[in-house]
Design goal:
heterodimer, A: alpha/beta, Rossmann fold, 2 domains, 6-stranded mixed sheet, 11 helices, 18% strand, elongated, B: alpha/beta, 9-stranded mixed sheet, 3-stranded mixed sheet, 21 helices, 44% helix
């Protein structure tokens, strides 16, 4: 079923976010002019955090939908449910976001079934409507409503990339792993680790990132760095922390992980 | 008798003089992946390959026992050139496998810092060592262990004449405190080799005529045939020498006989009188010529241009099919421009799956069985074993809301599903597939293994598939090898045909794609996949090269799209990125960066392509 969680602006404090460029400005402009936004970037580079941060800044709730390959249009729009008195209509996350004027965030949108594009298309052009076929209702999105989708244009999705006709309806934003200085600030800001150790972790991460496409399918993400730093700060042995949070999550192949550990050991003197 | 005594003596004396530890040996094969990842992660160029380095004569002082035994003349050193990182084939200089393995990793780390600047060997290595240790402090303990173990093995300076002792002292000091010594004292002998350092004078890959030509030849021949035993190396050496100086050939007759194939290589550069024999000779030579030296490649190319005599060739299935070709200059199809000959390998004997693929095939089959059509619930059926709640709900709400709703399709039923697809695999068998990708395999071997694993996997899914190979020699004929048609089932006979594929002529891709599309078009499946397996651009002897060939192929691909087929290209050509998007469109192709992975990747790629 749909993974859904809505954050309420009243309760959530501003989540930590270190901008890499002027993405925050772009987001605000897109929001003000009711343009849908598409965010591309590798796993764990801060896409979701960015949205939550921006939503908190703009004071809108977020409906996050983690898309998967069984996600249908009905999961987004809503469906009839059965109760004692008969059937009743239950709004899906997208419908709810439209009604409330919230931000609807579809994470990994390329994973969703193709029929979801049918409901996305009328919402993403200047009509900004959501026709609900089952109830015969047509919702007009209020100006506060914003649709944000994201996906990871990596190897996995080579063969099921986003349809160009869908992609064209969005304002695009490319995310990547931040520069070492920025990433250091993120790491210290997020976990409170000291700068020297943060730098060391980042050098190591960049060494592992050089292996992407050649030896590894995915690069070591900022999120993994945060995990590692958290473990280390908690008093866990640094080498073992790197193994647990940076090496093992990157590969299942024993030989590769042991080679990655050699890289870790070369960087990290005991 | 004399010979036997000699042998025994040789065995005893070499064992006594041996300072190596074969029981603790670590082979490059065992650490290749680890060193590769380490190299790339520490900033090494990912385009470089890890290859084995040959032995080098070190010219240092040897103990009398070693001199007596005639051993320890050579050492294996590591270096990096513009093509590869060369590491010793075997490291056995330390008594424990851990230390020997450490040496590999240390050399790899050291080589990542090598910027290729010209510098005195002694200073350069000290500087590199200091630099590496500064950047990667985690290597310090490993380095210290290696130095301690190595110092124990070096001849102590007390046992050496004064000049050599001074030299030895300097090296010891440099090892213990890298960067502390700024010059190496001269001595009569070369210093003893330092396995912890990079090669003092690595042979340059491009340099052909250098004073050390013997050295280089030895290196290149050994580097590429490293699986040969020590004995073979010696022999190879003795044979390459006569080639440099032909006058010597007469002296070592026995070697010439045992390496008869080498004599044939020479014929490659001569004019050949009898063209009929040319193909046969070329066939025999294939195993040796490419690995040995550059000269023979050109020679062989000339042979291969000629078609084999009819009796040696595959069976031709019919008189040929005329196909059009697109001329981009005049923007029109030239009708009946190419003649395509469907062929069937006659000498292919039924065979089993090669042993080295058996394990992978078994795993892939298990994975692919999961793709085989399982029984699935069909919704909205007019009749079925259970009520389709969704449909029923819609029906009742519609009726309650006053809509007119029809009551059919309210059930669901468990029915055998079907994967409604057909796949035609078209493999490029042109001469370029004769290229060696590593020490063991040519591109054609990779393609053959891929075809095997592909058919093993697909027969597990019961998907309908066919396989063909193609090569061409100008527009007539385009040779179209039939490996498996859609109607045949995968059996030992088909395996025989797969194992009989061999590199042929050129790559007239357009014609082959057009014919393959014709075949695939006849399949009734809902999705039809045309999978093209290639290693390079379309090309042929005539104008079918560059733009012309690419535009014709593109046209053929577009025709396939119009027929409702789904063309997809899998290539091992690393430089393919510039023309592939033009041919297949973004997302219509994939470049496999390491060709040796193709056999395993291809079936998985197929699974991903056909996932609905």
């Amino acid at each position: 079923m749909t993974t859904l969680f809505a954050t309420q602006p009243e309760t959530a404090e501003l989540p930590f976010y270190q901008p890499q460029g002027d993405e925050a400005t772009l987001f605000e402009h897109a929001y003000r002019h009711q343009l849908p936004l598409l965010i591309k970037g590798p796993t764990g580079c801060g896409k979701t955090r960015f949205i939550n941060h921006m939503a908190a800044r703009l004071g809108r709730p977020v409906y996050t939908v983690a898309c998967h390959d069984d996600l249908t249009a009905a999961d987004l729009v809503g469906r009839h449910l059965i109760s004692d008195k008969g059937t009743y209509w239950s709004d899906g996350p997208l419908t709810r976001a439209v009604r409330e004027g919230a931000i609807c965030y579809l994470d990994e949108v390329v994973e969703a079934r193709k029929d979801t594009t049918v409901v996305l298309h009328p919402l993403t052009d200047d009509r900004r409507i959501l026709p609900i076929e089952r109830t015969g209702e047509t919702l007009h999105a209020p100006p506060e409503f914003m649709l944000v989708v994201s996906y990871n244009p990596g190897y996995q999705n080579l063969l099921k990339g986003m349809k160009p006709s869908t992609r064209q309806r969005f304002v695009g934003l490319q995310f990547d792993f931040p520069e070492p200085d920025l990433e250091c600030r993120i790491l210290t800001g997020e976990t409170g680790i000291d700068e020297a150790r943060a730098r060391k972790l980042i050098t190591l991460a960049n060494a592992l990132r050089a292996l992407k496409d050649h030896d590894l399918e995915e690069a070591a993400s900022t999120r993994l760095l945060v995990y590692t730093a958290t473990l280390i700060l908690g008093g866990y042995d640094p080498l073992e922390a790197c193994r647990a949070a940076m090496v093992e999550p990157l590969s299942d192949d024993c030989e590769t992980t042991s080679a990655l550990m050699e890289v870790v050991q070369a960087h990290w003197a005991k | 008798m004399e010979e036997q005594v000699g042998k025994i003596w040789h065995n005893i004396i070499t064992r006594m003089a041996n300072s190596r530890h074969p029981e603790a040996a670590v082979h490059l094969e065992q650490v290749k992946q680890t060193t590769g990842i380490l190299f790339r992660a520490l900033g090494g160029d990912s385009g470089l390959q890890i290859e084995s380095a040959g032995t080098t004569r070190h010219g240092a002082r040897r103990s009398w026992l070693q001199r007596l035994a005639g051993t320890n003349q050579q050492t294996e050193l590591a270096w990096r050139d513009e093509r590869s990182l060369r590491l010793p084939t075997v490291v056995d200089c330390f008594p424990t496998p851990e230390l020997n393995r450490d040496l590999y990793l240390w050399l790899t780390a050291l080589a990542t810092g090598d910027s290729g600047t010209e510098q005195e060997w002694f200073q350069k290595n000290q500087q590199l060592t200091a630099q590496t240790l500064a950047i990667y402090p985690g290597l310090q303990p490993r380095y210290e262990r290696l130095v301690a173990a190595h110092l124990k093995q070096r001849t102590h300076s007390d046992d050496l004449p004064p000049k050599e002792a001074a030299q030895e002292e300097a090296i010891r000091n440099a090892l213990l405190n890298p960067g502390s010594e700024d010059h190496l004292p001269l001595a009569k002998h070369q210093p003893q080799p330092v396995p912890l350092w990079l090669h003092p004078a690595p042979p340059l890959a491009s340099a052909r005529i250098t004073p050390s030509i013997e050295d280089e030849q030895n290196n290149s021949s050994k580097g590429k045939s490293k699986e040969l035993e020590e004995q073979h190396r010696r022999q190879a050496e003795q044979v390459t020498k006569p080639e440099q100086d032909r006058g010597l050939v007469a002296i070592r007759m026995e070697n010439i006989l045992s390496w008869g194939e080498f004599a044939k290589v020479d014929r490659g550069t001569e004019e050949n009188e009898e063209l009929d024999q040319a193909a046969d000779i070329a066939k025999e030579m294939e195993q040796f010529s490419v690995t040995r030296d550059g000269k023979s490649t050109a020679g062989r190319l000339r042979f291969d241009l000629d078609l084999p005599a009819a009796e040696n060739d595959d069976q031709i299935l019919n008189a040929g099919i005329l196909l059009p070709e697109w001329d981009y200059k005049s923007q029109q199809l030239q009708p009946d421009h190419c003649r395509l000959l469907p062929m069937l390998a006659t000498k292919a004997e039924a065979c089993k799956l090669p042993d080295h693929l058996r394990k992978t095939a078994k795993r892939l089959r298990a994975q692919f069985q999961a793709l085989a059509p399982a029984r699935t619930w069909r919704r909205g059926m007019p009749d079925g074993s259970e009520v389709d709640l969704d449909a029923y709900l819609r029906f009742t709400t519609d009726r309650a809301a006053g809509h007119i709703a029809s009551a059919d399709g309210l059930y669901r039923d468990l029915q055998p599903g079907a994967r409604d697809l057909a796949c035609l695999l078209l493999a490029d068998l042109s001469l370029s597939t004769d290229t060696w990708i590593n020490d063991q395999m040519r591109v054609i071997d990779v393609i053959r293994d891929s075809l095997f694993l592909f058919s093993e996997s697909l027969s597990a899914t019961r998907d309908s598939f066919a396989m063909y190979g193609f090569s061409s020699r100008r527009r007539d004929p385009v040779r179209f090898h039939q490996l498996k048609t859609f109607d045949e089932t995968y059996n030992p006979q088909i395996r025989g045909r797969i194992s009989a594929i061999k590199p042929g002529y050129y790559t007239r891709m357009g014609a082959a794609i057009r014919h393959a599309s014709e075949i695939l078009k006849e399949q009734p499946a809902g999705r039809r996949l045309l999978l093209l397996l290639t290693d390079g651009k379309p090309n042929d002897l005539d104008k079918y090269e560059g733009r012309y060939g690419i535009e014709d192929t593109r046209h053929a691909i577009n025709e396939a799209h119009h027929l409702g087929l789904q063309p997809f290209c899998v290539t091992v050509d690393n430089k393919a990125n510039d023309y592939l998007p033009h041919l297949f469109g973004a997302g219509g192709f994939v470049v496999i960066r390491r060709p040796s992975e193709l056999p395993k990747r291809l079936p998985l790629l197929y699974a991903r392509l056909t996932r609905s």
